[in-house]
Amino acid sequence: EETVDGGAHWRASDLTAGLESVCFASPSLGWAASGAAVYRTTDGGRRWTQVEREPNDATNAGWLATVTCQGESAWVLSTGGGGGGSEAYLVTRTLDRGVHWGTVLAQPLSSSSTLPAIDSYAGSFAPISGTAAEFLGWCPGCGYGEWSFVRTADGGRTFIHAAIEGLTGASLGQITFADATHGWIATNAAGGSLLATSDGGRTWHRGYPSSARWPATDVAFVTASLGFGLGVVGDGRTLLRTTAGGLAWQAIAQVPADPFSFDRDPVIAFSDPVHGWVATTQGLYASVDGGLTWRRVPGAPLGGVAFSDNLHGCAGSFDTPAAMTTDGGRSWAPANATRGLVACAASLLDPSWTAPVQSFDPGNLLTIGAIVGPAHAWAYGLLDANRVGLETTTDGGSSWTAFRWPGWPDPSSSDALRAISFVSPTDGWAFTLFGRIFATHDGGTTWLELRPH
Questions:
Q1: Edge-to-edge strands, sheet with 448-450
Q2: pTM to 2 decimals?
Q3: Per-residue b/e over 398-417, b at no fewer than 16 CB within 10 Å?
Q4: Predicted confidence (pLDDT) per residue in 272-308, tens digit
Q5: How far is CA 55 from CA 22, 52, 108, 110, 220, in A?
Q6: What is the number of other CB atoms lying within 10 angstroms of the CB of residue 289?
Q7: Rounded Cα distance, 370 and 380, in Å
Q8: Tens-place pLDDT, residues 3-48
């Protein structure tokens, strides 16, 4: 149906085919799409003409289509079901009001394609100009789920593909552009926000509720007031520093490479205000000036990182052999445990942690996230089948005390604990999947959410 008086009255269009999406580039030029066909109107919706076929037919059922438009161009994303961690999709486009069409992006499930792809799954997309468009992609099998974008400036002849850092585990919604340079993406990261771009989608930053720097990947505290955070929304390499116990953050440097794509492995560690380590896709890097500059650590395995002091550390992951160092990373030796980074980090101070007295399965249930002293550590994860929270030991792992996580303000939230950092038996921080930070100053009995300043 259409309206010409702001919605006060409506009249039926002559287009009766089942549709999933409609877009108007002007009061007269419009597009409608279904999984089977694309239609065009040049008289404001009075008459419609089929201008392109889509994959839905007698043998290919279930395809859905979304159309967006800008000027004389229209872009149609058709999705056709998924399997094995990916979905089938294709993108067709016209740059001349529907006279000529071409398929520019595709991912079939049952055959190969020479066309570029968006990602494992296709997300929202938007035209930027008559020849430019940007597509969001999602890889659910990458860590907690990673986002990327594919951008073209020449009508789909060439594409640029890049990751959107700092959004691990987040959900992205609609993408839209007001002009060729300014655009926004809705996201639930850090409790709900908008990503903004002022360069046509090449880079993204947090635009709402504030543009304040706020960690998006991991945190590591060294005192009750001093801490470091890795990654911001749109840039996973940014290193942040707080001197206010996590209430406010300042960007101080860029790490040399993207953070390591991890499961539960911590990717940043600081043992004091100047000595720090960060796990990246190119290996382990170390800093001796509070994160301002970084150098590569040779011999360290790829994966997460944990250091108990300036000399004793561990690197690796659940999937790669972990290695230990007792000289600050100058030399590495295989860990004397078989449970990856968690057991390696636990055994730094007391080898008995590799076989604790109580039932303790760090690979599946709990992750040791903070080593406070020679016999004191904190772990987080599943306490049992129905409880998520933290456990602490003060005797090297022989006994544990559980603290059930108090729960989220929104009971339906899919947010989850992702990292913890403790600097004393009482002062600690919990970092969540969506980038929220909670602090405790009574040993985990109560928690207060920190809000960006």
A1: 417-422, 428-432, 437-440, 448-450
A2: 0.60
A3: eebeebebeebeeeeeebeb
A4: 999 999 999 899 999 999 999 999 999 998 888 888 7
A5: 18, 10, 11, 14, 50
A6: 12
A7: 9
A8: 666 667 777 777 777 888 999 999 899 999 999 999 999 988 888 9
